[in-house]
Amino acid sequence: MYQAQENRYENMKYFSCGKSGLKLPAVSLGLWHNFGSKDNFDNMKDLIFTAFDNGITHFDLANNYGPVYGSAEDNFGRIMESDMRPYRNQMVISTKAGYDMWPGPYGDGGSRKYLLSSLDESLKRMKLDYVDIFYHHRMDPETPLEETMLALDSIVKSGKALYVGISNYTGEVMEKAAVILKELKCPFIINQNRYSIFDRSIEENGLKAAAVQNGCGIIAFSPLAQGLLTDKYLHGIPEDSRIKRDGRFLNESALTEKTLGQIRALNEIAANRGQSLAQMALSWILKDGEVTSVLIGASRPSQITENIGIIRKLDFTEEELKEVDRICGL
Ligand SMILES: NC(=O)c1ccc[n+]([C@@H]2O[C@H](COP(=O)([O-])OP(=O)(O)OC[C@H]3O[C@@H](n4cnc5c(N)ncnc54)[C@H](OP(=O)(O)O)[C@@H]3O)[C@@H](O)[C@H]2O)c1
């Protein structure tokens, strides 16, 4: 049975999630890819153990991660049962509902009906009594915001989640949600949004500023642009890469000459900083202290150990920041 490394908290930094009392590791691990029904179970275990041994306490899931939908939660539940149960109180586990999960009108969106039943199913799959954070996964214009927020509040009151978050919301809608949740005294502590050197949409849609103003944390997903912001595509497309393995969420069309040129130029800045490109891309997100954690994915344990190296260098010079922006055409 797995025994966690005793020194696991020594080489990680933990940041407060907004103004809440919950601290998250600088690097968190997401189970969107590589934990599905066709993936290698021993590798999944290695990924979880490597993360936890290196101070990564936060694991992020969603009802429909797989494929097949639910299988990432199922596999995570098996690992909880076999090895991680003794460490449950040292882990922050999150899941979500909001995108399509099961057929018909009650398996998608933001209704109370969907959110409450989906979390019950997630808890069964993960073999947990509660999650630490439950998210509404996306804005749903067909459901009144009040209904979705009241559902999140009910979930906390039922004891099935300790905190709530929202994902893929804009700044404007997030502020409306925050007002409702504040009135309910519901512990809304985190926003989960895509953010990377290549994707600045949370700066453009006001989410980043609104979160900071509301004392709410931000966790950045796809911080490596699914692997583009690493050195892996510099010399062709490796067989064992997300583009070759999956092709649905990231495919060859992303690797234009322009993007490749940007990746090469960014890689040079990283080398001058004494970091890999993956490390620099992650440090860039945490540089101003406004983002709580970077939520990485990994297909192999060595990527996790490389990526946590960022805690040794989070700061940038003005010149480096300007150069990164210039390369991105900003
Ligand atoms: N809320 C939402 O709507 C939403 C949406 C998307 C993701 N998420 C969350 O965010 C998590 C992370 O998303 P993501 O997987 O797209 O993040 P990412 O960190 O941008 O990409 C992860 C992929 O990059 C590659 N990689 C990682 N470290 C590397 C390194 N050091 N060197 C070379 N390649 C490296 C691996 O791909 P290879 O397979 O090619 O090795 C890995 O699977 C998800 O698991 C999920 O929890 C949330």
Number of helices: 12
Q: Could you give the count of β-strands?
A: 10
The structural class is alpha/beta
List ligands, each type once.
NADP nicotinamide-adenine-dinucleotide phosphate
In N-to-C order, the SSE pattern is: EEEHEHEHEHEHEHHEHHHEHH
Spans with pLDDT under 50 lasting ≥5 residues? none
What is the mean predicted local confidence, pLDDT?
97
Q: Name the helicity range.
A: 25-40%
Portion in strands: 5-15%
Q: Radius of gyration over alpha carbons?
A: 19 Å
Characterize the structure shown.
The chain has 330 residues and is an alpha/beta fold. It is built from twelve helices and ten strands. The strands form two sheets. It has an eight-stranded parallel β-barrel with strand order 3-4-5-6-7-8-9-10, surrounded by five helices. A two-stranded antiparallel sheet has the order 1-2. α2 links the parallel β4 and β5. It starts with 13 loop residues before the first strand and ends with a helix. The relative contact order is 0.13. Bound molecules: NADP nicotinamide-adenine-dinucleotide phosphate.
Features:
single chain; 8-stranded parallel β-barrel; two-stranded antiparallel ribbon; 12 helices; binds NADP nicotinamide-adenine-dinucleotide phosphate
SSE layout:
Layout: E1 14-16, E2 23-25, E3 27-30, H1 41-53, E4 58-60, H2 71-84, E5 92-97, H3 112-126, E6 131-136, H4 145-157, E7 161-167, H5 171-183, E8 188-194, H6 201-204, H7 207-213, E9 217-221, H8 242-245, H9 257-273, H10 277-286, E10 293-296, H11 301-307, H12 318-327
Parallel strand pairs: 3-4, 3-10, 4-5, 5-6, 6-7, 7-8, 8-9, 9-10
Antiparallel strand pairs: 1-2
